[in-house]
Amino acid sequence: MQSSATQPLLKAALWDMDGTIVDTEPYWIEAEHSLVAAHGGRWSHGQAMQLVGQSLTYSAGILQQAGVKLEIREIIDILTAEVISNVRHRVPWRPGARELLDALFQDGVRCVLVTMSEAPLAREIVGSLPDPYFEFLVTGDTVTHGKPHPEAYLKAVELLKVQDPELSIDQCVALEDSAPGVAAALASGVVTVAIPHIVPLPDDPRHTTWASLEGRSVADLEELVAGRHGEPGEGPSQRTAASRSYAQ
Fold it and tell me: CA quadruple 129, 211, 219, 112: dihedral positive or negative?
């Protein structure tokens, strides 16, 4: 293995969007409630929670079961348009997300957006940032299988390798807030950080859990990748302990 002096251990951060960078979940839930109500149905908080982090195609199918008499594509377009409208009024940033993005950008760590939202909403969020933090976007309309399938993360790594063939999946970190997202990242083999938001996540020694991105640094991510490589840093037992200490 090459030394970190010649081969940086942390080369890329793969970011989920909804719930991780921005707190758009309330916008999605509001849109779901409105759509179901318009079709004479009722939409519970519990039903809404089951869709957090899921692909839009899956979510639209559940909304059809709840009585929405529209095609999958129509449902996705209506939900997305309402969320975009709300985002244009106010972008609800998650604590610490922009600061960590900026630190990664300044340190030359490549960043990719890996979201199940479609490109129009993703571009709206990315366009609200002060710098071109994201090298490219992997969105829900560019993959065949949504989270929890690993396709989106595997695609992100392959695209990163186009310009850096020596990049390995162990040099990438995924930042996720939901169970489907964490499952997708873990299944891809990427070092995974869970930042639970709307829905609590169970303890799992396979990933690290942080209560928030606030106060987190590039060094924190480098430490996790170093642990994967067997370098001095936070080892598996320490990561497991950390995952049990976050505020519920």
Answer: negative
Instruction: Please report the domains of the chain, with CATH numbers, ordered by start residue.
Output: 12-23+93-243 (3.40.50.1000), 25-89 (1.10.150.240)
Q: Give the end-to-end CA distance of the chain in Å, rounded to a whole number.
A: 39
Residue-wise pLDDT tens digits, 95-124: 999 999 999 999 999 999 999 999 999 999
Tokens representing residue 232 in the block:
């001095």
Q: What is the pLDDT of residues 61-83, one digit of tens each?
A: 999 999 999 999 999 999 999 99
Type of residue numbered 165: P
With 0-12 / 13-18 / 19 or more C-beta atoms within 10 angstroms meaning exposed / middle / buried, residue 32 is buried
What is the spatial distance between Cα 151 and Cα 149, in angstroms, rounded to a whole number? Answer: 6
Tokens of residue 122, six digits: 């993703």
Q: Give the sign of the dihedral formed by CA 115, CA 118, CA 121, CA 123.
A: positive
Question: In the numeric block, which tokens belong to residue 169?
Answer: 């999946």
